[in-house]
Design a protein that fits this description.
The chain is mainly α. It has helices spanning about 10-25, 35-40, 45-55, 70-85, 95-115, 125-135.
């Protein structure tokens, strides 16, 4: 089976979609990006949403799990990146939790790259615009 790399554009596209979902669920005035990232991190949302997105795009077969598409070296890189950012130990056997933590770190990095204030209220349109910009860059 072919291994896929989780591209930044997938992270931002799914992140924008999840932000919309959370913004509709919560009162956006009290919901900032930090809270959004925390809510995503403690949920199964990033893992499930990325899987759904890749299946919908025809990149991934619905008979398999996301972990079947990530190579061992990609997974090790993901663990190292997550541990470096969070300075905590990741259990190498817990793919889904590790993926969620890594996803949120990557999404936070993208938000900061685009100048988002993490204490500001969630702006779904701005996140969607960021995702579109990433997609056009072919990341």
């Amino acid at each position: 089976m072919e291994t896929i790399r989780i591209k930044k554009s997938i992270i931002t596209k799914v992140g924008a979609d999840l932000a919309k979902e959370y913004a509709e669920y919560a009162n956006t005035k009290s919901s900032n990006y930090k809270k959004l990232l925390f809510d995503l991190w403690r949920d199964d949302a990033p893992h499930d949403a990325v899987e759904e997105y890749l299946i919908a795009e025809g990149v991934m077969d619905s008979d398999y799990d996301l972990k079947d598409y990530v190579s061992a070296s990609d997974y090790i890189d993901m663990l190292k990146a997550g541990q470096a950012r969070r300075q905590e130990y990741f259990a190498p056997t817990d793919f889904e939790d590790n993926f969620n933590a890594w996803f949120c770190d990557e999404l936070e990095e993208r938000l900061q790259y685009y100048g988002f204030d993490l204490d500001a209220p969630v702006n779904v349109d701005a996140m969607a615009s960021m995702a579109e910009s990433e997609k056009q860059k072919g990341r």
